[in-house]
Amino acid sequence: MRLCIIGHPISHSMSPTIYSRFFEAMNIDATYEAVDIDANEFSTKIVSIIQHFDGFNVTIPFKERIVPHIVSQVEPPLLAVNCIFQGRGYNTDWIGFGKPLQRRPIEEPVMIIGAGGAARAVIFYLKRAGVKNIQIVNRTLSRAEKIKEEFEVSGNLEVNVFPLEAIREVAAKSKSIVNASSLGMNGEDTGITAQELSGKSLVYDLIYWKTPLTESSRRCEVKTVLDGRHMLLHQSMENLRIWGVPSGESFEKTFWEVMK
How many CA atoms, within 13 angstroms, populate the side-chain half-sphere of residue 128? Predict the structure, then answer.
């Protein structure tokens, strides 16, 4: 089986290392590689990817752009795909995001930084979990407004949107914070200070490694601090299930050896 992950940039992805080591350890006849696709060449390159790979993952910035090119199994308003197998598209992000939260109460309002495919997956899970009050902070308000419109239409959810400049103000009024953007990936500060983090129930940063946000949250003794490794673990196991590859404890062992 030939597998890959596509995105731009893609050099930061740990998925090739994780899957390749797992396949080798379990003697599974499969390969997994990273393919960097320039955003301007996506429409032509994606045709070749679909033809030459049995399955693949999709990351920033193509989770929404991929949808017209495959047979989507994703229900609205999620409209973002991150896992493909034999031309069919799925979303495993919301499952990966939600698994670590299943035994944890989610206090509201929930502030979400970002308005891309990952943010859609987060909101999709939160709504299913019964959350009714979400605050989106994003650089581009129009993207956040689009998500608000699409998720509010079915009722039982209030979504408010704010520019990135309002991040401290919104954080101060929120009980939980989720970073679903790339902010912090290269060490950038979100601008959220200890004053806003004090008393928070949850901070969940979808970036794999330590970020200023997760480090500050731990110093401020936020009740629950999670990073993107927790999401990636469960998302990856769901990817393997879709691709027809057994995972279980053997995959978890390999995963944490790579991501410790």
Answer: 17
**pTM over cut 0.85:** yes
pLDDT digits (tens, 9 = 90+) for 195-220: 999 999 999 999 998 999 999 999 99
What pLDDT is attached to residue 76?
Answer: 87
Among 198, 231, 194, 232, smallest CA distance to 212 is for 194
Order of strands, sheet of 158-163, starting from the edge strand that comes earlier in the sequence:
158-163, 133-138, 110-113, 176-179, 202-205, 224-227
Instruction: Select from 251, 233, 231 the least CA-distant residue to 30.
Output: 251
Say which amino acid occupies 200.
K
Catalytic-residue membership of 45: no
Spatial neighbors of 128 by CB under 8 A, at least 6 apart, are: 94, 98
Among the options 63, 127, 148, 200, which is catalytic?
Answer: 63
Same fold: 2-91+231-259 with 104-222: yes
Element (H, E) at 72: strand 71-72
Give Dmax (Cα) for the chain.
Answer: 52
Which tokens in the block code for residue 27?
Answer: 């003697």
The CATH architecture one would assign to domain 2-91+231-259 is 3-Layer(aba) Sandwich (3.40)
